[in-house]
Specification:
Blueprint: E1 2-6, H1 10-18, E2 24-26, H2 29-35, H3 39-49, E3 54-57, H4 63-74, E4 80-85, H5 88-99, E5 103-109, H6 112-120, E6 125-128, H7 130-135, H8 140-152, E7 160-163, H9 169-178, E8 182-185, H10 187-194, H11 197-213
Parallel strand pairs: 1-2, 1-8, 2-3, 3-4, 4-5, 5-6, 6-7, 7-8
Bound molecules: erythose-4-phosphate.
Length: 218
């Protein structure tokens, strides 16, 4: 499974990329607002740090305007993926941009039927939001399982399942068990994946014993 960083924070992206932890980045208007920086300049900088897809979201509602915004975003760098919402206009824009060779990420997916339509429109990525479903007492991971089953039934579907709205490490582990293609994680979740108290205790004990041995690595 590929890992994307779900953030527009360039400092965080730089650090995670230096550890080889991320294969791409997803942003949305909220994440751009939180970064406090200009949209185009942020995406341009992120695209230089990360080789993989960097999702940049359109903000228009009509298909022709989404296509126009998408084309502008595609000029920023070769690895931009245009993010469009899961609406009829969004799917029209997805089809047009995909046919032109662009990577399109269809976002705000909350049902298997929506995911099927996005695949039909040529989406490179479908973004089902697991955390927001959990928030309204529906099991978000059930949606990932269902989309995996549906997509696996049809060899012609090449759309990648990009698990979004990830809230905790268990979402990530379950996404991998189900066979999702990508999981996009906020940086704090990526860090939490690393942590285990037995790792810390073990390291402390090894270092204490090394000190007692009086040796040095030279
Ligand atoms: C990613 O592409 C989504 O925009 C993001 O994961 C949404 O997460 P949230 O539900 O925590 O805002």
């Amino acid at each position: 499974m590929k890992f994307f960083a779900d953030t527009a924070d360039v400092k965080e992206i730089r650090e995670l990329a230096s550890a080889g932890l991320i294969d791409g980045v997803t942003t949305n208007p909220t994440l751009i607002m939180r970064s406090g920086r200009g949209f185009i300049e942020s995406i341009a900088e992120i695209c230089k740090i990360v080789d993989g897809p960097v999702s940049a979201e359109v903000t228009a509602l009509a298909a022709d305007e989404m296509i126009e915004q998408g084309r502008r975003l595609l000029q920023i760098a070769k690895n931009v993926a245009v993010k469009v919402p899961l609406t009829l206009d969004g799917l029209k824009a997805c089809r047009a941009l995909s046919q032109g060779g662009a990577m399109v990420n269809v976002t705000l997916c909350f049902s298997p039927a929506q995911a099927l339509l996005a695949a039909k429109a040529g989406a490179r990525f479908i973004s089902p939001f697991v955390g927001r479903l959990d928030d309204v007492s529906q099991v978000g991971m059930d949606l990932i399982r269902s989309i995996r089953t549906i997509y696996d039934n049809y060899s012609a579907i090449t759309t990648e399942i990009l698990v979004a709205s990830v809230r905790h490490p268990l979402h990530v582990v379950e996404a991998a068990e189900i066979g999702a293609d990508v999981c996009t994680c906020p940086p704090d979740i990526l860090r939490k994946l690393l942590q285990h108290p037995l790792t810390d205790i073990g390291l402390e004990a090894f270092l204490a014993d090394w000190k007692k041995s009086g040796q040095k690595i030279v």
